[in-house]
Design brief:
The protein has two helices and seven strands. It is an alpha/beta fold. It has two domains: 124 residues, Ribonuclease H-like superfamily/Ribonuclease H (Nucleotidyltransferase, domain 5); 47 residues, no CATH class. Strand 2 and strand 3 form a beta hairpin.
Length: 173
């Protein structure tokens, strides 16, 4: 089962402390059919020390999505791949640890012997890293992957992917 999860916050200028949690999960192998869970997540002012990026209800969300998958397929998923967006770099490990534990607990809640393979991938597309080819004045080609430990974190499995063609604006000097 492929899962995509994101947490969206209101602008800081808005006094509202309600964030929106959206999680979708594939229902089939293709995948072309999805189940969804959308929640409001209220963050009270006294929640200091708790990550703003954490999906608090991840355990309930995952239980619901696994149950929907099982009702649709007549068996629960044997592997779950979670693509998680919206985590700031400083909170990767804290959020990862808590959400992965919540997913494991959801599986155990459904059955003490239910232990699917779990993969948790953090997707971050809001970075300020720029790559410039040395042999041309054009942009880096679409599909370029940079995973050199000179540039990425040597202790994590991270990489940069230039997933689409970038329009070159003006000539760089």
């Amino acid at each position: 089962m492929y899962v995509g999860a994101d947490l969206s916050h209101p602008a800081p200028s808005i006094g509202n402390q309600t964030s929106v949690v959206a999680v979708v999960a594939s229902a089939d192998d293709i995948p072309n059919r999805y189940f969804k869970e959308v929640y409001k997540q209220y963050r009270p002012p006294q929640a200091r020390g708790e990550s703003r990026d954490l999906i608090v209800s991840m355990r309930d969300i995952m239980k619901s999505l696994i149950r929907q998958y099982e009702r649709h397929r007549s068996y629960p998923p044997t592997a779950i791949v979670i693509y998680r967006d919206g985590i700031s770099e400083g909170e990767f490990y804290s959020v990862f640890d808590k959400e992965l534990m919540a997913t494991r607990q959801a599986c155990a809640d459904l059955s003490p012997v239910y232990r699917p393979y779990l993969t948790y991938i953090v997707v971050n597309k809001r970075h300020h890293t720029r790559f410039f080819p040395t042999d041309t004045d054009k942009n880096v080609p679409a599909g370029t992957v940079v995973d050199s430990h000179d540039i990425t974190n040597a202790t994590t499995y991270d990489f940069y992917l230039n997933s689409h063609h970038g329009a070159l604006v003006g000539k760089m000097h």
